[in-house]
Amino acid sequence: MLSILLPLRRTAFVFSLGLLGYHSGQAQQLPLTADARVESLLQQMSTEEKLAQLYNNGFMTTPTNERLKVPGFVMDDGPHGVRFERASSFPTGMAVASTWNRALAYRLGQAMGEEFWAYGKHQQLGPCLDIVQDPRAGRNAEAGGEDPFLIGQLSGYIIRGIQTTPVMATAKHFMIEGKQSTRHSRNQIFTDRGVMEQFGYNFRMAVQEGGALSVMSSYNLINGEHAAESPYLMNTVLRQRWGFPFYVVSDWDAVHDSQKAIVAGNDVCMGSDDYQKDLPGLVASGKVPMTVIDAAVRNVLRSKIMAGMLDFYPTSTPAKSANTPAHQEVALQGARESVVLLKNAGNVLPFNKSTTRHIAVIGPNADQSNLNCFGSSETTPAYAVSLKQALDTKLGATKVYYAKGCDINSIDTTGFRAATELARQADVVVFAGGLDLTQEGEGYNGGSDRVNNSTVLPGMQQRLIRALARVNPNVVVVLQSGGVCSMHESLPAAKGLVYSFYAGQEAGTALADVLFGDYNPAGRMPVTMPTADSQLPEWNDDFTDDFGNGYRWYDEKALTPEFAFGAGLSYTTFQYSNLRTSASSLVAGAPVQVMVDVQNTGKLAGDEVAQLYLTTHSSPVWMPKKELKGFERLTLAPGEKKTVTFQLTAEDFYRWNEQQKAYQVNAGRYTVRIGGASDRLQLTQDVTLKSGAARPDLKVTEVFSLPRFPRAGEAVRFYALVRNLGNAPVMGQKLNLSFSVNNATVASAPGTSLTLQPGQATLVPATQSTWQTPTAGKTTVRATIDSDKKLKEWLEDNNSYSRSLEVY
Known about the structure:
This protein is an alpha/beta fold. The chain is 23% helix and 24% strand. The protein contains 18 helices and 32 strands.
């Protein structure tokens, strides 16, 4: 298979490489290309058989063609664990975003893929790449924060992790669903530039860097057309401009007009019988040409072939690959790394285990697991640890006083007396509140979005926090939610504030570890916390009037939030120094290397998240005051100093020219800003980009094999996913593509004619092979484009990509 499936461990993730026999002599007979196999199947299919590839015939399944041995899809929610099964509950999308850790995102993706595979699923309906438009949106727990760069970077690694297993990832919801109460009718207004630069960046990374084998269209309308029926989204943007080669599936019952949807490029209709009942008549009448049906079926078959579904397909079982100790470990590590420390007055945290005689744990979330918001992301793990359970385990139940105190959202204060009495007797108090699945979720939850329609912590929670502080000054608030809650009125009463976006089955353990210093927190806010609702832009459907939402809005309006995007504290301290760039003046498009020293100036080992933002000056169009363009999470021992290196490529400076319909890099002055949060960017350095000759920059981002899971004795054809992240096109140049196994070239595509616009990707097959009769085992395959460096590029060190391969 394309990846080695190893148990996940809390230590470094290492591939165990074996040897694979090969000879580099005569050319071998390659298997047919995926497209040739697709055409062969297509020619054998009747109209009825073709249409059967495009609709669901059961709950999250599509029909199997027994005659031609083409299996149907078996799909399942959701974005952070297998729905409807006794499977692990991993951290939600917002929690993963809080880790700011690409490597961890990969490990979480791989663990999820193994569990979907164990339960017989071909396709995971996740990850969710939604951008948080407003904290009150009900499905924010599934989203990846407010910044498309953060989401795009992390989701690419989640997708790669999922697809190391025999499971397809599905990037959803394309694009930007947001408000749940009106999700089927909400007409969102976007500019072409807004889609190409900001609101679609996360999806471009998912398909071009992550190599996602499927994309899900969203419910909402965009510029007057439902997303599933938008040729602009499905065809112009996704397929033509970005080069997505695989298939699109609709969200559940998201198709409203079958003719519009299939013509637009929504290949499979899920959650309704619209295609099944409408397409036969539409085809028979000529309203939908057979060429449209063939195009959709090609996308579906290509995806199935590249996913390995039509060839040998390895199987697993829940006993082997679900709820494993290794998965519990990565779930715990994910939860730990997601915890955000926001306030620590007087170093109230961490609590001292040996001197804490009694701890009062008060609040509606103290004894709850809080796995998800309400809806299709639900998980049912074998166990889930609440904060109270974890503290009982860590300290002993006799040291833990517990009272609920108040509800999540009611006016009942009858529990205050018991809660304050326990607080009075305790050394320290932890108030555990926030939201739960009764307060936020998908639109069919009796209510919709957030029940109180406010960012403010609901019910009597803030009142109880103040009451607890009056009898015991050592109050630490722990909030759990999907969308962020504000607590401006009660924040002064709390010495500490710890935030946890629903972090899965090990959330309680992770929180207890942070509270008592067994884990030094380093999560960072993936969203901005407002002081009040009045700081938010109007929650409307016009995306041209809010400056890109999130910290961009706060910057534009000169607003000071409660806690900024990227904020988070540690039990140690860090210092930034010696910011420098590879040059102060370069040709527009040339790579800019940025280096900064980060030192742990405290007494404890800890993680810091170095963040790089870019400010554009003198732009011919409006630009945000700053944009996230780089981040690295690094671990530092006390006193240790490391140099963090960022490399800004042409892509990081892309601006979409709406007249020329192309990505460009504008000359002018830019400022690089680096620090530990979006409002703590202590170091700055100007860089000037000069007009000059543009260049392409090819990058290999993924390697596929056909068959995906080869068996000993089978011939294998390799594919490379190649993208252009430069600022000039590649126009039909004949370039060499090579593939090596254990550093020996085994396959190639010499003289491949390549045409790629900036920001576009394509899937390139090998045309020759000398790889003979491999034996079963594991090794590494590497793809290299332009290996003889004929093309003049900005960078030459990103032309190769390697991944593991297993022959069964």
